[in-house]
Amino acid sequence: GQQVMQIPQYQHVQEGEDFTTYCNSSTTLSNIQWYKQRPGGHPVFLIQLVKSGEVKKQKRLTFQFGEAKKNSSLHITATQTTDVGTYFCAPNSNSGYALNFGKGTSLLVTP
Amino acid sequence: KAGVTQTPRYLIKTRGQQVTLSCSPISGHRSVSWYQQTPGQGLQFLFEYFSETQRNKGNFPGRFSGRQFSNSRSEMNVSTLELGDSALYLCASSLWREGLGEQYFGPGTRLTVT
Asked: Which residue of A67, A98, A103, B72 is most buried, as measured by CB atoms within 10 A?
């Protein structure tokens, strides 16, 4: 499948600082989805990126898909305590019938 | 619209037993996927069903099986349980449009094997 590496594994920031998580693949991806999972909760869809070089924004969150479609990133500006959770990237498999989730980046935000 | 529901929410089983977990997708969603989540391995894909057909299976032993009914509800079964099967089992449903779209996850079933 389309395995991806997510870095960092953990990130601890002060409220108001920025945060970025990266998702890297050795192969070209057809598309990639991002999910957020709050502690004790289930993953919730954030966005899907499909086009090379695509950039999408959702309020303080900025998602990018690399030009070569081998990497993606999620950037949060001015983190808030509500941003706490684990962020996963998940590309579609070659078959299109599975999502291969990265290990995730756990974000802790302290006030 | 009601969300994805999973039953039971919690389960404790003994090694060697078998277990069946159930998932009801969002109305109109015909694709149902199952994932195993553990602290060490993260979210791992088990299988995906669409219109009662398994279209893809992850790298899990044959003890893990599933099925989907005509109303899109799905079940997964784990036979001969091992301690390492303790995990959160998540079901997700989605619409199908040239690939798996946005996955709507259920709350999961927490399985503990003793």
From this structure: A98
Task: Enumerate the residues of chain B whose CB falls inside 8 A of the CB of residue A98.
Answer: 33, 45, 48, 56, 58, 100
A68 touches A52 (CB < 8 A) = yes
- The DSSP bridge partners found for residue B105 are B92
Longest dimension (CA), chain B: 42
Helices and strands in chain A: count of H runs, count of E runs: 0, 10
Position B31, amino acid: S
**Helical H segments across chain B, by residue range:** none
Cα–Cα distance, A100 to B109 (Å, whole number): 20
Set of chain B residues whose Cβ sits within 8 Å of the Cβ of A41: 107
Give the tens place of pLDDT for each residue, A23-58.
Answer: 999 999 999 999 999 999 999 999 999 999 999 999
Residue identified by tokens 């694709």 is B31
